Amino acid sequence: MKTNIQKFIITCAPRTGSTMLRMMLDSHSDIVCHGEVIALKGTPNLGKYAKVIAKTQEELNQLLAADPTRFLYEYVWGDPNCSAIGCKIKYRQLEEQFPEVFKAILADKSIKIVHLRRKNLLKRHVSNRLAASQKTPTVILGKQQQTDRAQQRISIDLDKCLADIEHIKRSEQAFINYFSDHPVFEVFYEDLTAPGSQDLFELQDFLGVNPINIQPKTVKLNSNDLADVIENYEQIRQKLSGTVYADYL
User: Fold this and answer.
1) What is the end-to-end Cα distance of the chain in Å, rounded?
2) I need a surface site. Which of 35, 137, 187, 238 has the fewest CB within 10 A?
3) pLDDT tens, 17-34?
């Protein structure tokens, strides 16, 4: 049993690569990183630790509903057999759905914050739209076999897209301000996936574990080229060219 276990959260907007990052961190032998266990939908999955605490999924649901903050501290952060333990909690879950959990995290300055962002917010918007419209996954585990399928395409409403981009920018800045007194590691999805990036090594060091070479366990299924995904791409390109959003194209 280890003492002085480092608690952390990954906080972010949707479609910023949090599943990829969570699985990468969780593959480290000294890190436990749960998914969205503080959520209104679904069942909190504590993996192997659920057997250690001898709780059924129904019991975990009841514990979360009764006292989300206690559930976070005693069960999500309760595994004594690691050096760092965390989970991902998105902006909306903290601000709107679990304000008591948010208040507790803000008050506890020992909690480390991994703030995951995406540089290209147009691609984030498109990814979010695709995820909402598809019944099939947008990523798969690397060990799963990829099947041939047609690339799904969507049409973008530019006004709604730009409103979404500005909303995400405001949320990002708000969370930078919220956690200004916490130890924070800012990281971008694009940097995590860049060849030769040192960000993941630095993140492991931030969490207090010996850095190792960790590779992504997920494979992105959709094209990274916006022209392949956006039906009205040429219209979007013409309207955004020469604006502050041009770099997203």
Assistant:
1) 50
2) 238
3) 999 999 999 999 999 999
Q: What is the SS3 assignment for 9? A: strand
C-alpha–C-alpha distance, residues 179 and 190, integer Å:
22
Model pTM?
0.92
Mean local confidence (pLDDT), 57-72 = 92
- Taking only the tens place, the pLDDT of each residue in 174-228 is 999 999 999 999 999 999 999 889 999 999 999 999 999 998 776 777 788 999 9
Closest CA to 156 of 148, 144, 164: 164
Contact 219, 145 (CB under 8 A): no
The Cα–Cα gap between 172 and 116 comes to: 9
Angle, in degrees to the nearest 10, between helices 121-133 and 158-178: 110
Structure tokens at 188: 């971008």
Confidence of residue 2 (pLDDT cuts 50, 70, 90): low
Within the chain, how many helices (H) and strands (E) appear? 12, 7
Q: How many residues does the chain have?
A: 249
User: At a CB cut-off of 8 Å and minimum separation 6, what does 67 contact?
Assistant: none
